[in-house]
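Justification of computing resources. Each target in the renewal requires a structure prediction run like the one illustrated here; the chain below, 507 residues long, is used simply to show the kind of job we budget for.
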Amino acid sequence: MKPSLATTLRAPVAVGVLLLAIVAALAAGQLVAGLVAPSSSPFLQVGDAVVRLAPAPVVEFAKSAFGTADKPVLLVGIGVVLLLVAVGAGLASRRFATVGQVTVGVLGVLGIAATATNPTFAPTDLLAPVVAAGVGWWVFRELHRRAMEYTGSADGITRRRFLQATAVVGGLSVVGGGAGVLLGRPTIDSRAVVTARLAAASVARETGAGTDFGLTPYVTPNADFYRIDTALRVPQLRAEDWSLRIHGMVDRELTLTFDDLLARPLVERTVTLTCVSNDVGGDLISTARFVGVELADVLRAAGPRPGADQVFSTSSDGWTAGTPTEVLLEPGRGALLAVGMNGEALPTEHGFPVRMVVPGLYGYVSATKWVTDLELTTFAARESYWEQRGWGERGPIKTEARIDLPRPFAAVPAGAVTVAGIAWSQPRGISRVEYSVDGGPWAEAELADTVGGDTWRMWRGSVEVGAGSHTMRVRATDGTGALQTERAADVLPDGATGWPAVIFTAR
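Resulting structure tokens:
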């Protein structure tokens, strides 16, 4: 029985129909992406587009507010927006399907556009969003038609057919979307193979060990190492498929495979990496023992030409960074093409199979994960991802310190209070740390041993305090004798500055 022109869907049914259509579209896109190219999932492609197009202040707010949870928050936010769209467009489609069809069509076009404008776009990437758009449009049309028939009829058979159709769509969406996620996972545990190869390889180990005073570990476990990048889906690369192209202003263009890289001498270096978004006293900083190949040797093998002041690195997901060539070639700098981290192959989320590690530079200009391309060029010729968004060109790390004890707003017993923390100034190192309570005289802290200037340095001390609220500040002096600046500055454009402070209460 056809519905009459006066037939109007109940609000929950209308919203449910559009929501099911969107879910079916996303599931179909995920399934096709899993079969063809996992990164082409329309949901993730739209998320990537949001990251690419968001103004720098918005991105910085997200990192400051949510830290390493910024990516899940973004994906949840996109899901909420889709839910709101389903509610609004669904309600507008209670009598006529036009609004819903247009809405699903627009969402499909957005998915296709996001995919086509991705820096790593390949023609096959369009399969997933195109299929998603077609499935979403067809499912909405069919479910809306059946819903109208069910609403305009008292026939129990019609009602059962509609409910059966919704159940089938929902079930297929769950199965298809789940299958797409599973298909997108790597089929070979390439990391385990690389870990075994590194264990058997001859590696020039770094001598010396840092002391952590039993508070913050000198070497950060891989699971706790901070992660800041733009990848909503961590690239799943196999070492056997990886290659690195070195080209541009060079005498000899090179292409290295993973085997080529491991045939070179391997060295181990303990390096502290720091994010430029780290606020004064923040925790976007970690230290690891990286194993890799001297990046300077690889660049020299290509023969950089005069005037090539920038090494423009590109990740497999299209992210880019611009690193000063002179820093990478500087004797003793120790920049690496890293393949190992803390005794195992690089974790996937930290750049497996190969990433850049450059002591002394913030990560946004140096720490390219999943690196696949190095172009010798100039800063005038090419702008990297974050430079296009208003960040500084070269990104040298500034001298900073952090208070880990006492914790902010902690309550401690009056009397002798232990104070402790970390300080860093890569690659200059730390020569002195001082702390002051309630504006009193500066006391010199005890410094732990350290591997060298490329890592943070632990400090600790003790102060006598009476009952009440107290404010403690800390400042560091780098290895050249320069004192950390007191001037407060935001993270934009090239890193925060200022003396960190903690308020605590003694009782």
